[in-house]
Sequence to fold (295 residues):
Amino acid sequence: MATKTAMITIAGRPNVGKSTLTNYLVGEKIAIVSNKPQTTRNRICGIVTRGDTQFVFVDTPGYHRARTKLGDFMVNVVRESIADVDLTILVVEPVASIGPQEEGLLEKIRGTRCPAVLAINKIDTVEKEKLLEVMAVYAQAADFDAIVPISAKTGDGVEELLKVCGKYAQEGPFLFPEDVTTDQPERQVMAEIIREKLLWCLDREIPHGTAVEITKFSERANGIIDIDATIYCEKASHKGIIIGKHGDMLKKISSLARTDCEKFMGTKVYLTTWVKVKENWRDSDFLIRNFGYSE
Ligand SMILES: Nc1nc2c(ncn2[C@@H]2O[C@H](COP(=O)(O)OP(=O)(O)O)[C@@H](O)[C@H]2O)c(=O)[nH]1
Ligand SMILES: [Mg+2]
Fold:
């Protein structure tokens, strides 16, 4: 059987639902999701193998102006991922006006000669008439090969989007084994799951200054997996908040994380978490690499 592959970048400003879409496509949580911008820090591949075709979706950190070294890194990841792929999916909110961030991405897409498809996401939140307006505005703005309304949350339109993507597949060997859903090492997925719970449970300022390192990841003979994780934060006061009164917050975060870790690993997980202070790690190249935010 001749196999085909398609490398597809999922672009869009923060919070439009790129990671939610990636997860829906692969049928598993590989990219973390929150309602806070800049949730995704590194480039994550979501892999879908259907019959003779393998799709590699590249979920990018949202495009934004950089303020720290971590921010610089994230912006570069976005720049690199738009070049050299078979297709770019631009994900946008169902809003009938084009903001400056979308305009910037449209410009980049025009500049690469890479085919582009528009996915208007979150259609579960708007009326039909409104959606038609949004489609008209974007149809005028750029030469999209297709415009597909979707809901990454409910899955509406996602199959249609995948069908469109199939047209861009090129003959070639699969890049990943057929049963694999991501290029991220399991350790990294575990660390990200923990970071997601920090984003969910804590006010904005604190999780954005955290990083998670998995210091132990081992499987027992009976299949149980032991994971030790250290949560780094930037201030002693943040450490106190993350741990919480009587350790309640850390317990809550760990228990939410454990459930997702078990879902991903398909087995029982014992998760132990620690919190440490590491000032200004977001401005240190070394620490950014150390936490897995690099190629
Ligand atoms: N109602 C609705 N919310 C969505 C949809 N897709 C994503 N979201 C929400 O939008 C927020 C941002 O999603 P995320 O995937 O992290 O966005 P990203 O920054 O582009 O990766 C989260 O709160 C999601 O639950 C959708 O189709 N419908
Ligand atoms: Mg994301």
Q: What stands out?
A: The two ends are 32 Å apart (CA to CA). DSSP finds nine helices and ten strands in the chain. Residues 18-19, 31, 39-40 surround magnesium ion (ligand 2) (CB under 6 Å).
